[in-house]
Amino acid sequence: MEAFTGKVWVLGDDIDTDIIIPTEYLALKTIDDMKQYGFSPLRPELAGQIQKGDIIVAGKNFGCGSSREQAPEIIKALGVQCVIAKSFARIFFRNSINNGLLLIEQPDLHDNVKEGDEVTVVMNEHVDHNGKQYPIASLPENLMDIIQAGGLVKAMRKLNGLD
Amino acid sequence: MGETIIEKIIRHNTGKAVKPGDIVTVNVDRVMIHDIFIPFVADKFEEMGFQKLWDPDKVVLIYDHLVPASQQDDTRHFHVGDAFAAKYGMKNVHRSDGICHQLMTEAGYVKPGNIVFGTDSHTTTYGCVGAFSSGIGYTEMASILGTGTMWIKVPETIKVVIDGELPENVMSKDIILRLIGDLRADGATYRALEFSGSTIENMSVASRMTMANMAIEAGAKCALFTPDEKTAAYCETELDEFQKSLVGDEDAVYMKTMTYKAEDFVPVMACPSQVDKIRDVSELQGETIDQVFIGSCTNGRLEDLMAAAEVLKGKKVADFVKLIVTPASRKIYRQAIELGILDTLAEAGAIITHPGCGLCCGRTGGILTDGEKVVATNNRNFLGRMGTSKVQIYLASPKTAAACAIAGKIVMPE
What we know:
The complex is a heterodimer.
Chain A: E1 3-10, H1 17-20, H2 31-34, H3 46-49, E2 55-58, H4 70-77, E3 82-85, H5 90-98, E4 102-105, H6 109-112, E5 118-122, E6 126-129, E7 132-135, H7 141-149, H8 152-159
Parallel strand pairs in A: 1-2, 2-3, 3-4
Antiparallel strand pairs in A: 1-5, 5-6, 6-7
Chain B: H1 5-14, E1 23-27, E2 30-34, H2 38-47, E3 59-62, H3 75-88, E4 93-94, H4 100-106, E5 115-118, E6 132-135, H5 138-147, E7 149-153, E8 157-163, H6 172-183, E9 192-196, H7 198-201, H8 205-214, E10 222-225, H9 229-235, H10 241-244, E11 256-261, E12 268-270, E13 278-280, H11 281-284, E14 291-295, H12 296-299, H13 302-312, E15 322-326, H14 330-338, H15 341-348, E16 351-352, E17 373-376, E18 392-395, H16 398-407
Parallel strand pairs in B: 2-3, 2-5, 3-4, 5-6, 8-9, 8-11, 9-10, 14-15, 14-17, 15-16, 17-18
Antiparallel strand pairs in B: 1-7, 12-13
Helix pairs in contact in B: 2-5, 6-8, 13-15, 13-16
GO molecular function, one term (chain A): 3-isopropylmalate dehydratase activity
Keywords (chain A): Amino-acid biosynthesis, Branched-chain amino acid biosynthesis, Leucine biosynthesis, Lyase
Function (chain A): Catalyzes the isomerization between 2-isopropylmalate and 3-isopropylmalate, via the formation of 2-isopropylmaleate.
């Protein structure tokens, strides 16, 4: 079973899309131009500190707010490997799947983890932290299909006979 | 077995009875794309390899967040949008007519029972006429433009019943804020809200629109109101048998039912910086403010401007307060001129702006700085939404907002 390990950044409840990327930066041309402003209203220094392969652990309702798809794209562009939260907002959830950003729902990890800790994710089974296993669910089949195709764009290219 | 409204809409669309949790593919009746996301939709659409739109007449493109442009590169979005519309034969383009969610129902693009998606979270608004409408991202929008279809998970429904007569200074905004406070910001995530009861029946379509607009602030996938005679008049249509059937059945299965008495509602505000941090206005009285914003797809309609004008008639906005009024559409703007509402507001000292998203999305028209406080009638008070992250945003009804503008501090509407 696929597994990976990453260093943790801890965020709270209701991290909204205006925090992930404020509206004033949405008309910048590319995600790379925008990503330095990720999380800036809450933690202006965070975007510069995140390293490739890090993991965000958050409370409930992560990604609430607008439909801006730049939110998951920026998190992915910053190198974040996955977001583990108590729960996710629905538009953010769909946008993340469509862009190949892995999201994992886990109700208890957030209360027991601190920033800088390492966690290991064993896909569709559990998250390991400090010798303890936190169970996680498998993704529904239709979502796995999109992820396995490499995101929605690739799935549509296949449909149109391009790949 | 009975059905909820959302189950009836999906059954009608797919031809099969559904239950919560089912994953189904629906045929989309209409889509809306706004100016911020059109460049991304256009890129993804072409990257996906589509040659044509599934139905150009079902696609609506609306410029609102960036109109008129406030930053140097904003107009690029209009050029990209215009080129995309020309290339693929789209006729439904609005370049300066107002806010997307207002126009979708006002211009007749959405009918009761339709399934509609938009690249904006407040697409839930069209539930005010009994349509299933929800926000999506630009990648998903690009795939709908090519296929005309979209997968969805049939949501559970939370039923909200409100009976009785609202107190005089309470507006539908106070109801939806209270409900979001009770549900919390994630209380309706993945779920449909369904409204009923005599208070809802007696409410205007515009007031229902305010409530459907803010359903997303409790995480809801959609918010549904039963189409009635007022809906038919607003949509300039006659309801057919299917549309008339969009009532939650007695024996439908609901996740839960929330019951309210209209007489129990009071003016409330969402306090900085969470939409579910609801307090009675009476508890917040005396807090001094710097600005008031009356507008947005939540509360920028004629009845909202009229309510504000009634409060402000013959009075003056406090010296140190900027009152910014932004009608939701050109049609509303013109009606408000004709009825003398804008004159009343201007006489009281309001700054009246062009129709559009304006200050609500924090790009133009009244950006604030550290330590300042604003009472606003829009739908979000998130950190940094109207300027720096140290601006404090209080969300309220137009009546409350107008009263605060006169007093220069938070006060109860009278």
